[in-house]
Amino acid sequence: MSRRTALGIGLGLWLLIDLPLALLVAGGWSPLLRTDRAVVDALQPAAVDSSAYRTVLDVVTDAGTTWFRLLVLIPVVVWAFRTGRVRLGWYVVAGAVLIGPLTTGLKLLVGRERPDFADPVYLSDSLSHPSGHSSGIVTLVGLLLVAFLRLQPRRWRLVTVLGGVALVFSVGLTRIALGAHYPSDVVAGFALGAGWVLVLAAALNALPGPRREEVEGGKSLSPQQPAREG
Predict the structure, then answer these.
(1) How far apart are CA 190 and CA 61, in angstroms?
(2) Residue 151: how many other CB atoms lie within 10 Å
(3) What is the pTM (predicted TM-score) of this model?
(4) What is the pLDDT of residue 211?
(5) Residues 134-193: pLDDT tens digits?
């Protein structure tokens, strides 16, 4: 993927998904609000009724937290700098650290309250739109794919991508099932995180090149065949 393509897709996600959803939610567009409420009301009671199910949701949803993202990505940053992938290292640092403030800023602009329930299973003082867990898990998976997908044999790349997508949607579903977010919050979080990964990659030129990876000083780690790049 070229820098221009990554930038275009990233900005497109923000302009075509995040911006309209933010305006509709902030403006109180009733069809969206009714649909959001109907979905979360249909899914949340199961978590109330089953402690085992709720435990599974709690475990899966942790993959979208800041502490989990940093726990996974700190070793990636260390590896990137130790192997001379300086640009990639700074890309992962910026991506992992700044998605939180970016999400919080949009939350403050929209100002949506969390879903309320007579018997809640999830409580939080923060605002609801977009979902921070959703933007966080997309950012985590996206950064890992940029860092490591190029190093995998081509036959395993599709499986890796599908596994990442499955994890992303699993975390998003837990946010609704726990009653922590509305569906539109989750969709907006997905778009925000994916757009951030792509826009930042384009800005820092962190996407893999066609034949070699650049390292500090403009040298290359080693020439690589096109079939091994991604």
Answers:
(1) 14
(2) 12
(3) 0.88
(4) 42
(5) 999 999 999 999 999 888 888 888 999 999 999 999 999 999 999 999 999 999 999 999
* Cα–Cα distance for residue pair 182/131, rounded to 1 Å: 9
Q: Are 56 and 49 in contact (CB under 8 A)?
A: no
Residues contacting residue 78 through CB under 8 Å, at least 6 positions apart? none
What's the chain's length in residues? 230
Q: Do the Cβ atoms of 221 and 166 come closer than 8 Å?
A: no
Cα atoms in the 13 Å half-sphere on the side-chain side of 210: 2
CB 210 within 8 A of CB 225: no
What is the tens place of the pLDDT at every residue in 178-220?
999 999 999 999 999 999 999 999 999 988 754 444 444 444 4
Helix (H) or strand (E) holding 137: helix 132-148
User: What local confidence, expressed as pLDDT, does residue 193 receive?
Assistant: 97
DSSP 19-86: HHHHHHHHTT-HHHHHHHHHHHHHHHHHHHH-HHHHHHHHHHHGGGSHHHHHHHHHHHHHHHHHTT-H
CA distance 228 to 30: 50
SS3 state at 220:
strand
**And the tokens for 109?**
């602009």
**Distance (Å, rounded) from C-alpha 27 to C-alpha 48?**
31
